[in-house]
């Protein structure tokens, strides 16, 4: 049977993960040969415990938390035989949705499969979307907000960031070509969604060995406000100011100090370079 570790991030979802820990462990135990329960109280502890569990040879690392905790779990299991399970208990839970896990039942009764990952030149992995520009500024603001929970936090952060909207010169280089343009935002998708279910790269597929890249060129606040509602449906890609393409490797430079975010986690200022690593992540889900 499977040797498993349950990594609990009690602060996720304003304490939701802590409240779910007992029932989650109870649901897992009948389906594994052993279960270690680990409780982490900060990002450093989460990452250290995840690496320790993988080094100890667990077959399955189950993260009980939000996208931030799941992102740290990815850093530990990427490129190994340890599978990642996610029991969502955070704000956005985009990675859990991509994996096909909406509850502990999806981990218990799910199947193993492999997904592609993105990797930055720094060595960091990401599973969902890397973004920079307007959307990373929204991430910065949303992460600092205490209210509200869920996707509404991102909606309010979007409205607030519109007040200081600025485009910037951006250079996008792929394995085949280079684009130079005045841009408002760029998103590199291994999977479609970020920000609690926003399909910024609606065609992205974590099994095709390619990123889907979405670039919004320069536009007025009025144009962006008209476009924003279409983000929730993925129809923004039909707008003439939006450019989309696919690539295995992408480098971003320029941006006038834009900060890159990956899986909703702050990375570094541009320039950044990323590449796809096919099949680097083993997951359990539906």
UniProtKB/TrEMBL annotation:
User: What Gene Ontology cellular-component terms does the record carry?
Assistant: plasma membrane
Q: Which GO molecular function entries does the Swiss-Prot or TrEMBL record give?
A: ATP binding; ATP-dependent diacylglycerol kinase activity; metal ion binding
Alphabetized, the UniProt keywords read:
ATP-binding, Kinase, Lipid biosynthesis, Lipid metabolism, Magnesium, Metal-binding, Nucleotide-binding, Phospholipid biosynthesis, Phospholipid metabolism, Transferase
Q: Which Pfam families match?
A: DAGK_cat (PF00781), YegS_C (PF19279)
* PROSITE patterns in UniProt: DAGK (PS50146)
Q: Which residues form a coiled coil?
A: none
Q: Which domain of life is it from?
A: Bacteria
One GO BP on record is: phospholipid biosynthetic process
Q: Which NCBIfam families match?
A: YegS/Rv2252/BmrU family lipid kinase
Family to which the UniProt record says this protein belongs: Belongs to the diacylglycerol/lipid kinase family.
Full protein name = Diacylglycerol kinase
Organism of provenance: Lentzea waywayandensis
- Taxonomy-wise, where does this protein's organism fall, top ranks first? Bacteria, Bacillati, Actinomycetota, Actinomycetes, Pseudonocardiales
């Amino acid at each position: 049977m499977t040797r498993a570790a349950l990594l609990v991030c009690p602060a996720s979802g304003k304490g939701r993960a802590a409240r779910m820990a007992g029932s989650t462990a109870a649901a897992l135990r009948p389906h594994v040969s052993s279960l270690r329960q680990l409780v982490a109280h900060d990002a450093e502890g989460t990452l250290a415990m995840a690496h320790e569990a993988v080094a100890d040879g667990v077959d399955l690392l189950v993260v009980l938390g939000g996208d931030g905790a799941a992102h740290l779990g990815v850093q530990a299991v990427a490129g190994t035989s340890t599978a990642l399970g996610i029991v969502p208990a955070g704000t956005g839970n985009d990675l859990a949705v991509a994996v096909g896990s909406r509850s502990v039942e999806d981990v218990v009764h799910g199947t193993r499969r492999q997904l592609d990952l993105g990797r930055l030149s720094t060595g960091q992995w990401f599973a969902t979307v890397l973004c920079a520009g307007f959307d990373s500024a929204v991430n910065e603001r949303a992460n600092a907000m205490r209210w509200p929970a869920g996707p509404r936090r991102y909606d309010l952060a979007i409205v607030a960031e519109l007040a200081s909207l600025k485009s910037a010169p951006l250079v996008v280089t792929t394995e085949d070509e280079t684009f130079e343009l005045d841009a408002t935002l760029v998103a590199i998708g291994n999977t479609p969604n970020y920000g609690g279910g926003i399909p910024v790269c609606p065609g992205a597929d974590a099994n095709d060995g390619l990123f889907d890249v979405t670039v919004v060129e320069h536009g007025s606040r009025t144009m962006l406000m008209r476009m924003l509602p279409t983000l929730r449906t993925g129809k923004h890609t039909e707008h003439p100011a939006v450019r989309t393409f696919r690539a295995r490797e992408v480098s971003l430079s320029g941006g006038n100090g834009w900060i890159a975010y990956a899986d909703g986690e702050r990375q570094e200022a541009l320039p950044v370079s990323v590449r796809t690593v096919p099949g680097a992540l083993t997951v359990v889900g539906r």
